[in-house]
Amino acid sequence: MYTIQKIKQNIVNKINNVETHCNASPQDLVLPPNPEMGDLSYPCFNLAKSQKKNPAEIASELAKRIKTCQTVKEIKAVGPYLNFTLQPKKLAQEVIGEIKKKGYGAANIGKNRKIIVEFAHPNTHKAFHIGHLRNIITGEAVCRILENAGYKVTRANYQGDVGLHIAKCLWGITQLKRKFAKAAKEKDINKKAAFLGKAYAFGSGKFEANEEVKKEIKEISQRIYNNDESIREVYLETRKWSLDYFAKIYKRVNTKFDRLYFESEVFADGKKIVMDGMKKGIFKASEGAIIFEGDKHGLHNRVFINSESNPTYEAKDMALAKLQFKEYNPDKIIHVVGPEQKEYFKVIIKALEYVLPKSKEREQHLPYGWVRLKEGKMSSRLGNVILGEWLLDEVKKEIAKIVKKNKELDNKNELSEKISLAAVKYSILKTGLTRDIAFDIKESISLSGNSGPYLLYTYARIQSILRKVETHSNASVQETHSNASVRSEEKNILFKMSLFPEVARESAEKLEPSLIARHLFELSQQFNDYYHATPVLKAEKEREFRLALIRALAQVLKQGIELLGFETVEKM
RNA sequence: GCUCUCAUAGUUCAACGGAUAGAACGUAGGUUUCCGGAACCUAAAAUCGAGGUUCAAUUCCUCGUGGGAGCACCA
After folding, report:
1. How far does the CA of A154 sit from the C1' of B19, in Å?
2. What residues does the Arginyl tRNA synthetase N-terminal domain cover (predicted)?
3. Does the residue A114 lie in any domain?
4. A399 strand B contact, CB < 7 Å
5. Residue A356 belongs to what domain range?
C-alpha cells in the first residue's frame, strides 16, 4: 500500500468514526484547487443531502469533531468542503522512503491477466505517415503503462500485405518501370520506401479516374491472392522493402513486437470461417457477396467476402482473432486503431461473438484522435503525406542546432536523437487520447514549455546538482528531519510525488497516457520554480533533506518518462 | 439523407456535475552576487448560440450553427 493510499484511508476513517452513517471512501477525497487550502478535501454535498442540512454547516461541524494526528496537521472547513492539511515532516519521511524502493508506482490491478495490445499496423507498399507515428507511440506507451500495472502484455502488429492497395502499388510500378529499376539499385531503404509510396499514389489516382485501370488493378489483386507466379517476384521483393523500412522505424522509436501478424497469413482461414459461418446462419449471401447483418444488432451491414470471392478485411479479422486466442489465450485484446473505424469494430466484435464466443467482452477497439494538418488535408492516396521519419528528422535538426552550441556534451548525435524522440513522443502523448491533434511543424513540436525536452531538462538539472555532491553524507532523512524544516514548496512537491502511483494506476485503467504526461510536467514546473528560490547545495542543515528530496524527484521523473516510452539524459 | 464525434484565451491543449475555468506557445515587460537561462517572474487574453435539468453546468439533456468521421463489395 502506498503512502497516499494509507493517508486517504486514515482520513476516511476519521470521518466515518465521527459520522457513522457517512460511509466515506478514499475515492471521495478530491484535491483542493489551491494547496494553501489543504492537501485533500472531502466535499460534504452528499452528507448534506442525506441529513438535509447545509453542507457548509456540516463541514464546519465535522472540522470541530475530527482530531488531528501525526499525519494530518490541520483540519478546516472551507465552505462546503472539509479540508485536510498533511504534516510535512511525516510526509517527507514516508514518501521519500517509498520512492527509494524499486518500482515506485507499480500496481497489481492486472495481476495474472494477459493482454494483447495490437498497434502500429502499417500496410506494406504504402507510406508510413505521422498518423502511424501517433499510433505506434500511443501503443507503446499503453503497453508500458499496462505492464507497470501488472499485466502480462504481448505486443502485436498486424500488417496489411495483401489486398487492393498492394495491387494499386504494383500497377503503379508497371507504369514507372525506370524509377522502379533505379529504386531497386538504391542502398538506402528510405528511398526504396519513398518510391513505393509514389507508385501507390500514382496507381491509386488512376484507379479512381480510369475504368480500364480499375479493371487491371483488380486483376492484379486477384493474382496476389492466388500467389500467381507472374507477380510473385516483384511482390515479394517490394514487400520486403516495406518491411525492412518498418523494422528500421520500430527500432528508431524504441518499440519491439512479440508477434508480427500478416494479412497474408489469415486471409485463407478468414474465408473458410465465413463460409462455415454461412452454413450456421451467421453470415448471409447478398447481392453476390457474403455479409454480416449488422443492422439486426442496431449496427450496419458489412461485406465479409466480396463478389469476386475474396475475403475482405472483415473476414481476415475473424481469422486473426481466432489465431490470437489460439496462440495467447488473452483476457483482453486491445486494437489501437484510428477513430474512423469505430463503427467497423462494433460490427466486427459483434460478428466475432458468434464466430468465436469466447471472444465476448475481450475484444476492444481503442481509438485515438486524428492527426490532421493545420493547413490542407493529408492523404496517402493523394501522396501528400507527412512521413513519420520526416517529422523525426526535422525535430532532430532543430535540436542538433542547440546541442551543437554546448561544448561540454558528448555523443551529440545520439543525444539529439534521444531529445528529439522525447519531443515528438511527448507532444503526441500529452494530448488526450481521443482528441485530434492539429499538426503544425513549427508549433506542435515545442522544445520549451510543456514539452518533452522540458522534462529532460529538469531531470538533467537535478542530476547536475547531484553530481556536485561527491558522495552523499550518511545522514538519512529520518536523522535530518528533526532539524530541517520543510518549506511549503517542498511539501507540495512531496505531495505531488506521493500521487504518482495513483496517476499511474488511473492511466492504466483509462488507457490514457496523457495523465502521466501532465503529472510529470506539473512536477517539473514545481521543481523549476522551487529551484530558483531555494538553494540546495548552499543550505546548511537543510542540505541533506533537500538532496534527498530532489533525488526522489529525479527518480519519479525517470520512471514516469519511461512509462511514456522515452529516455532521460544525464546532460543536455 | 441517417449515425457518431468535436467546439474553451490570437494558437495548441487542461478542468470525477462542485471552490477564483488552469497551462504552454505567441505578444509586452522583467530576472546585480546564484547549484545549468532548453529555466524563472509579471501582465493582457477564453467556455459557439438558444432553451432545459440541478442547491450547483465548460461538463448532463433538447434544438440550432460550424468542423471531422462513418454509412456493402478499400484497409
Report:
1. 44
2. 5-86
3. no
4. yes
5. 119-373
Through-space separation of residue A542 CA and nucleotide B35 C1' in angstroms: 14
Gap between the Cα atoms of A102 and A22, Å rounded: 37
0.90 surpassed by pTM: yes
**CA-based nearest residue to A117, from A303, A255, A12, A7:** A255
What CATH number is attached to the domain comprising A65? Answer: 3.30.1360.70
Helices (H) and strands (E) in chain A, counts: 21, 13
Sheet hosting strand A72-78, strand order edge to edge: A40-43, A81-86, A72-78
* Per-residue pLDDT tens listing for chain A (572 residues): 999 999 999 999 999 999 888 888 999 999 999 888 999 999 999 888 888 888 999 999 999 999 999 999 999 999 999 999 999 999 999 999 999 998 999 999 999 999 999 999 999 999 898 899 999 999 999 999 999 999 999 999 999 998 889 999 999 999 999 999 999 999 999 999 999 999 998 998 888 888 899 999 989 988 988 888 999 999 999 999 999 999 999 999 999 999 999 999 999 999 999 999 999 999 999 999 999 999 999 899 999 999 989 899 999 999 999 999 999 999 999 999 999 999 999 999 999 999 999 999 999 999 999 887 766 555 555 556 788 999 999 999 999 999 998 888 999 999 999 999 999 999 999 999 999 888 777 776 788 999 999 999 999 999 999 998 865 454 454 445 556 688 999 999 999 999 999 999 999 999 999 999 999 999 999 999 999 999 998 888 888 899 999 999 999 999 999 999 999 999 99
Q: Which nucleotides of B are covered by protein (CB under 7 A)?
A: 4-6, 11-16, 18-20, 23-26, 34-36, 38-41, 55-56, 67-75
Whether A288 and A329 map to the same domain: the answer is yes
Phi/psi-derived region of residue A113, left when phi > 0, alpha when psi is between -120 and 50, beta in every other case: beta
Q: How many domains does chain A have?
A: 3
Q: In this structure, is residue A381 part of a structural domain? A: no
- A 357-396, residues with C-beta < 7 Å of strand B: 370, 372, 374, 377
Element of type H or E holding A437: strand A437-439
A474 CB below 7 A from strand B atoms: no
